[in-house]
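Q: My labmate handed me this sequence with no annotations at all. I'd like to see what the chain might look like in three dimensions before we decide whether it's worth expressing. Could you predict it?
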Amino acid sequence: MRAICLAMAVVVLSHWCCAQGQVKPKPAELLPETPHLVFVTEYVRELAAIEDIRVSGQQELKQDPTAALSDAIHSSTLFQLELGSQIRMLDGMRLNPPYDEIVPVITEGYAAKIALFQRLSDICSTMLAGPEPGVDYGKLAAEMPKIRAQLDYVDQSLFQATPLVFATLIDPKANSRNQADHLIITRADRDKLVEDLNTDFGSKIDAKGQDYTVTAASVLKAYLLKDYKCSDEPWN
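A: Here is what I predict for the chain of 236 residues:
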């Protein structure tokens, strides 16, 4: 199941990024493997950072609906800066097989989103500048919902990789019943991840109908609270 989920995410994002010319090289093979807890902790931080920008953008729009175009430029720029920072952070990480494709899949998705946010910002800037000869403003306006749909598509693809992010924490060693029921992290480590998720996302992490970013955080929390024992708990 893990392999199937990862394969789906790889195929979807690789197809998208190739079509957009956004495929990034994989991290250098000589990098040492990143501790899985470090990777998952960074993943949680990235989800929270993206959600913070989204919420801030919504608040700006409510305060002054007439500034929708300039607010969109502001939010798009913040998204690009944050995603660029996240790519640079993840480019310094590497996971061994069978998880070696997870980091490239995520960074390719981030790169695709940067390109889409840049296009959205460009359109808003053109419309905000006022009438210019030869500019088809109707066509530009019609392109904006298409960009939002493409962003949703990439976010959905990134969301599909979340179970694999959690799977990096599962200890492959089987118990006496030939089941992998332990995590490679301690109970304190697990509790800290859950605490971070609760702090960063608040009550909406347990609410239905959230966007893909919050849903990814919710799925990760649910997996962490499943019936897995931690590394400092007894084996059967």
